[in-house]
Amino acid sequence: MAPAFLEPVGDALVAPLKKHPSLIAPEPEHCPGPESNLAGQGSACAGCPNQSICASNPKGPDPDIPIITSRLSGIKHKILVLSGKGGVGKSTFTTMLAHALAADEEDMVGIMDTDICGPSIPKMMGVEAETIHVSNAGWSPVWVADNLGVMSVQFMLPSRDDAVIWRGPKKNGLIKQFLKDVEWGELDYLLVDTPPGTSDEHLSVNSFLKESGVDGAVIVTTPQEVSLLDVRKEIDFCFKAGIKVLGVVQNMSGFVCSNCKHQNQIFKATTGGATKLAEDTGIPYLGAVPLDPRIGMSCDYGESFLDSFPESPACTALRAVVERVKVELGIYRRPMRDAKDG
Fold this sequence. Notes:
Blueprint: H1 7-10, H2 51-56, H3 65-71, E1 75-82, H4 90-102, E2 109-113, H5 121-125, E3 133-135, E4 138-140, E5 142-145, E6 148-151, H6 168-180, E7 187-193, H7 200-209, E8 216-221, H8 225-241, E9 245-256, E10 263-264, H9 273-281, E11 285-291, H10 293-301, H11 305-308, H12 313-329
Parallel strand pairs: 1-7, 1-8, 2-6, 2-7, 8-9, 9-11
Antiparallel strand pairs: 3-4, 5-6, 9-10
């Protein structure tokens, strides 16, 4: 595991960000952004009290973007894990996807946890008590295994129960540091776990990674319509932001008894679930992963569910999802013998 060296990293929690313009009124609905090239000049700017402030604000590309692009040049595939809805098991799915990809010991895998206010990835990966090592090369990820690393704000907090109470600009600044200052090295996959919604963190990740290239997003949902409502918004966000959707995964899709293997539909797909969603939006359907109480237990203990229960229906379904993700990424490998449709 990575040794502790807190002081330089801890500074990131209190360091000032690049100064943003001081606005005197809330931004209007269609504001192009006070730092965009159209600031103070767009149609939405007419009559806005901030127009002169935004118009005089320095413009131009973020000087850190080329640094980020260079830093991430050794990463082959960058995948966002999105949902739009909280409570669908997105972070849980991210950890299982990471373990599944890292099962091939020749592949190097990283997870970047951008859920700044609710960083659960370290707990699920069994490295909650670790801290970040800093060297001349940058911040080192915490390594769960020889080929699986994690970066999260959780490693920077004095206590596991400390709250991160930040507004958008501060969160965006830390996400930039995760991309600019972390020595990810040569990776085959970087999974970016995001919080629910379509807000600051999502916009920041997309803008910072646009030049280096994002391979696409995996959308996680559960079968019921109350989840699909927000997931449709997330898909619309991807379309508007120019992010390729690799596909949608239906998580918690039925409950499988660990004894008799009978499956019950706990969350019923009253409007067709993820399969109908994929059909309506024209995105790939990656499969369905059933509920298994041992998944939650594995996350609580920081263990790999795939290693502990490799023959479970959920593991079989997850391996099938991984194969479909690889197809969407253009990685054509021989399908696993036990990969079946979920």
